[in-house]
Amino acid sequence: MSSQTSTRKRQELEAPERYRPVVDHELCKRCKKCVNECSYRALEFVDGVVKSAGGCVACGRCINVCPAHCIEIRQVPSQFPPHANFNERVRRGIMSQASTGGVLLTSCGTDVPYPVMFDDILLDAAQVTNPSIDPLREPVETVTFLGGRKGRLEVKGNGRLYMEKDPGPVIAMDMPIMIGHISLGSVSYNAQKALFQAAQELNILAGSGEGGLHKDFYPYANNVVSEIASGRFGVTGDYLKRTAAVEIKIGQGAKPGHGGHLPGEKVSALISETRMIPLGTDALSPYPHHDIYSIEDLQQLISVVKESTEYKVPVGVKIAAVHNVGAIASGIVRAGADFITIDGFRGGTGSTPRIIRDHVGLPIEVAISVVDQRLTAEGLRNRVTVCAGGSIRSSADMVKAIALGADVIMTCTAAMVAMGCRVCQQCHRGICSWGIATQREELVARLDPEVASARVVRLFRAWNEELKEILGAMGIDSVESLVGNRDRLRYFGPNSKIAEIMDVKHVGEGWG
Amino acid sequence: MNDGRNWIWAGIDAIRTPAMAQGTRLKEMSDHPRRSVDKDGIFHNQGFEGRLPTPELYGATRPPGMKYQMGGCGIAGCMNLEGGRISGDRIALMLETMGERENGLGAGYACYGLFPEHREEYCLQVLFDTEEARCNVEELLKTTGDITKDERVYTHRVKTMHPPFPIIWRYFFRPNPNVEWRGRLDLSNDDFIVQLAMHINSDIAGAICVSSGKDMAVFKGNGYSYEIAQFYDLERYSGKMWISHSRFPTNSPAWWGGAHPLSILDWGVCHNGEITSYGVNRKLVEMNGYRCSVLTDTEVVAYTWDLLVRKHRLPIPAAAFAMAPWYHKDIQRLDPESARLATWLRITYKEALLNGPFSIIVGRREPEVTLIALADRKKLRPLLVGTSADSRILYTASEECAVRVVDPDAETWTPNAGSPMIAQVGKGIIRTGNELPFVGGN
């Protein structure tokens, strides 16, 4: 068989396309802007008209740039004979693996329609026996602190009062929101700049990701949590000193038990310099930290980091939510972490094996509550700040996550969507048409850091206003009084066992 | 805190309620337009046909299935700042005057400095539903210490009160030296008493220890404030300080054990309000070894005072600040030392912040009889303080009428939102509640 025939034969066996851009040729001005903007080459200009060329991922770039508003993307109806068990998703996976012979890569959080417990929880409000608070007229506080606590304050003095010991480093944020760890590498220079700038303007924190901190971003260091991941990319003495807090990343919700993965396509000169790795090579972080094979090793690393940062910044540990998360969290607090970040299994990523993203871990709603209960039972909850992320999609999710037991919520995807991301799950390919998850200069240039940053600022300001609205309705005037206040939640879903595990009463159950 | 709200309350100072201005005794209260007094001298709220249908009534046993109770209330307290004695009928009159604030589902009083001859012994007052419960508690006390004296607490049947009527016993108790509790040798006497009281309340069926401090006792039960006063014949007691409470519960059964004051060791707490952060506050005390058995927010408030002041040795203004702190933006107005301490109190004790509306009167006996009056930081529930013209008697109450009825010439003021009034026998008024929270610095 000639190679041409075999190529054709192979193509015959590929899965059919899922999305198709459809152009209204009457309205089309033939400006070809869409063709030039489509980084997935899904559009072509043939015989004087714009046509679909296959491979559309529904990123929507063409729709937004079209001056004639004449493009729509259609989801192609399933071309597979119906089968409830071997559904389309399953068959596409098989076909893809048969073509490539590899581990299926994907990105963003899982798109499998698992139940979302956030959507099964209702909040309480104040009526009669206590007044609701009007955030337009009364103070409602959302200031949140990140850092370790001693559980007790030694106050001395008679008349004038003073603390004998320095209670240690802590960071004040204006809202209980942290932009999660999105590394330079997984996203572009402009995208990270926009996120850091937004964090600075909002006076909140943003994670560095495991890619080090680019020297241009040193001015944002007071709002950056520096990550130490298993690859130790870019971890230098300087990196540890120019930071608000340090986070040792053990795991990530989208890929528990896995290391970071930056495909070689994204390792540009800029990335190579910041991460201190060769140009164009895949940056694959080891799965575990090879100096942490047990909890006592983690304790040592925490001590080392605290020593090297001279006890000036909080040091935390991030773990993926896994089945034994309560006990692991307890161990981490006992090992000396000032804060602990739990990342639920629906959390996003720039690249992960699909099997891990879609099948490993614990939903964040359950993980938060379990950790909060466990730390409380062991008398440790007031020693540590608990941050939680893994698909906090809205302010409602944020409020519920806090009420379930998180001090701070961590979100990435929402910030990305604010900047233009359409959650098309192609980040791992490095050709993001919105200039976010790419290192190609011409694509990166599409993202204006000022515009993107302003959008992120507006998004989280709006969330914070909505948080105040809800707190006021609940008769609570400071967000710390919501943390772990599960009494104010009711479960309204199909599985009361989940409610029991989350320590949330069922709807209809009153106080007593 | 100057949030403007206080000045509105301060205006009440000028209002005199004519019917109450004369220091009226109980029976004269029939002139009050909302009251009637029956032939036994018991008065009722009008507007209802006698008493409202009462829910199930409970004695020492916690109502089954009860998870939490809430409601509105009236509170009152008085103290002789020079250490002289005040008779129980004075406080009863103060409390009864605020009849609008109760609905007959619980009231109570705590007296401090009433057992001078037993000053150094813990006075345990325990309610029992059965003789068996009493035997179990006595057995426990005998194996862990000496009962130097015990007696049935005097009670007097009141026609209008409904059963159950628990057996009420008083024990003067000294724990064994080198006391051991469940294998633990590191407990102080006070810690031991805390464990003992919580054990009785949680584990001994049909028994509830309503007070456990030295030289103080709690008298409480199901009924209107005047019924409880008659039931215990409060006139027979006099002490340096009284605090009291009448309940208007909204949705919970009436339970003798759940009435206020809630007390642990020498702490007594009368609380008007509903803590919207109960779940959070409860976590703090449970993390520190307290077991919640009464399941009211007030119980948690009492444990929080014990934790912060006795165990963590915070000065009272610092502890009050942790429970009703300034807003962060206001903290920035303080001098840097004070602001730093204030911020760290908020960070360290964020679970102690009592959110939602409340006003509380807190009593303590150690190191000297002390009264603390504190309202929430938005001042969503009323609280007022007053002194007699000769500055010897201190009053505090939800409403001005409660002070005027016993002392028409008292000078009254309102503490600021979130600012504690602190008075101590022998020292007088330490804080009026109108000062800055504290001054930081060494």
How would you portray this structure in words?
The complex is a heterodimer of chains A (512) and B (442). By secondary structure, chain A is of the alpha/beta class. Chain A folds into 2 domains: 88 residues, Alpha-Beta Plaits, CATH 3.30.70; 353 residues, TIM Barrel. In chain A, the strands form 8 sheets. An 8-stranded parallel barrel of chain A has the order 11-12-13-14-17-18-20-21, surrounded by 6 helices. In chain A, strands 6-22-23 form a 3-stranded mixed β-sheet, with helices on one face. In chain A, strands 1-4 form a two-stranded antiparallel ribbon. In chain A, helix 5 crosses helix 15. Chain A is globular and about 90 Å long. Chain B has a 7-stranded antiparallel β-sheet. Chain B has a single domain, classed as 4-Layer Sandwich (Glutamine Phosphoribosylpyrophosphate, subunit 1, domain 1), CATH 3.60.20.10. Chain B is α+β, with helices and mostly antiparallel strands and 442 residues long. In chain B, strand 22 and strand 23 form a beta hairpin. Chain B is globular, with a radius of gyration of 21 Å. The N terminus of chain B is likely disordered.
Main sheet characteristics of chain B: 7 strands, antiparallel
Please name the fourth-level CATH homologous superfamily of chain B. Answer: Aminohydrolase, N-terminal nucleophile (Ntn) domain
Report the β-strand fraction of chain B as a percent range: 25-35%
CATH-level-4 superfamily name of the largest domain in chain A:
Aldolase class I
Question: Poorly predicted ranges of chain A (pLDDT <50, ≥5 residues)?
Answer: none
Name given to the CATH architecture of the largest domain in chain A:
Alpha-Beta Barrel
Distance between the termini of chain A: 79 Å
Short description:
By secondary structure, chain A is of the alpha/beta class.
Which key features would you list for this structure?
heterodimer, A: 512 residues, alpha/beta, Alpha-Beta Plaits, TIM Barrel, eight-stranded parallel barrel, three-stranded mixed β-sheet, 23 strands, globular, B: 442 residues, alpha+beta, Glutamine Phosphoribosylpyrophosphate, subunit 1, domain 1, seven-stranded antiparallel β-sheet, six-stranded antiparallel β-sheet
